[in-house]
Design brief:
This protein is 25% helix and 33% strand. The protein is of the alpha+beta class and 131 residues long. Strands 1-3-4-2-5 form a 5-stranded antiparallel sheet.
């Protein structure tokens, strides 16, 4: 309803979706990653830079898609990422070399700060263990 202040609720708009050409399989795990940003411009430039360098990196095995949303006030980015299973996401987080361009952009871009992530599995999914 217009005019109602919903404390703790952040509205987002989709900025960009990234689907690796080699992605295949069924979604067994969703990972929601959030970042704090200084402005809408900073958020969108950061997402665009990630997409640009990500095209040159090999996609993480098991990643099916990443959908980047920017908050309507420009202070947050939400990445709704689809993975084949929990193990693929865990392997990517633990095994990704720290020197890759994607990791550098995520860790070193001024005005963008990692805020956390939460992993979910599809209800009754046979492809992912309990989280």
């Amino acid at each position: 309803m217009p005019g109602i202040d919903r404390r703790g609720v952040t509205a987002y708009r989709l900025h960009r979706s990234v689907v690796p050409e080699v992605s295949s399989g069924d979604v067994g795990c969703i990972v929601v990653v959030t970042f704090e940003t200084d402005s809408t411009e900073q958020a969108t430039a950061w997402i665009d830079a990630l997409d640009e360098v990500g095209r040159d990196d090999d996609p993480a095995p098991g990643m099916l898609a990443a959908h980047f949303h920017v908050s309507t006030v420009g202070t947050r980015v939400l990445n709704y990422a689809e993975w084949v299973d929990v193990a693929a996401h865990q392997s990517s987080v633990q095994g990704r070399p720290a020197h890759t361009d994607v990791v550098k952009i995520v860790d070193e871009t001024p005005g963008v700060r990692f805020a956390g992530f939460k992993r979910y599995r599809w209800w009754r999914s046979a492809t992912a263990p309990e989280v």
